[in-house]
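Memo to structure team: turn this sequence into structure tokens by end of day. - J.P.
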Amino acid sequence: MAEVLEAIGMCTQTEVSCNLPKGCMMRKIFLILLLALPLYANMRAPVMIKRGASALKSVSAAKMEVLSESLEFDCPAAYTGGVNLTFFADAACSARVTYRIRSQALSVQLAFVYSGTSEISWQLAGKTYTSKPAPLSSQQKSCPHCPQSLARLQTALQTLDLAEGENTLVISYRQPLEFRESGHNYFSAGKWKQGFSYELWPIAEWQWATGFHADLRLSIAARDGFLGIGYKDDTIRCYIDEDGKFSEVDLSLSKPSAGARSASARVEPKRAPQRLRCEYAAG
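Reply from structure team:
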């Protein structure tokens, strides 16, 4: 830094006698810009790709009792590259949500809300149905930096016929990922955390059976270790967000096997709105 300032001073002192005053002035400008670049390097804001939480909601009221909820997410490996908005827009986990429901024989309309664009698959009583998503609101954005098609919350509607007794409803979809950057500078990306949110409390009109719980299983593709030996020690964490108060979920972590690192937990939802938030990062 001192050398740069000295060079600027030398050029200033010799500018009067310089045979090419314009060239000397250009040298001054170049050196000033060179001095300013490190300061500008800290001006870039961190990249943050936000997504709305996924949720299953009831459009028509129904007398149903939820026995259990199972959440399974198979996610890509922890990201370590540079800023890539196209990649961020497409990155998603394969998600499978299962509800065990005790019900009267009735027809019910359900709505699945999420921030992706892929079709939703519903499985009930050996039959599979698909729903195409539609924008939930033209004003509600979930990913401002993403392409327009992925910038808004979507909703997929499906009418299902529940049999009297116990029913198992399986919903499959692609869960978009959020990305949050830290420790960056102007010339290179920092470290990334990616994750997703899911509303734990199911349909408001449903009753909860005694002992109702949610089982969580999250797996991420494991990254190869040094020289391809073993796997990187990537981190996985999940939290319960209850009205802005966060409590960490006690995850049971397994060693990587078959190219994946897995975590599982049993969560006891409350009547108050609760949101599950999971995130992972390169270790």
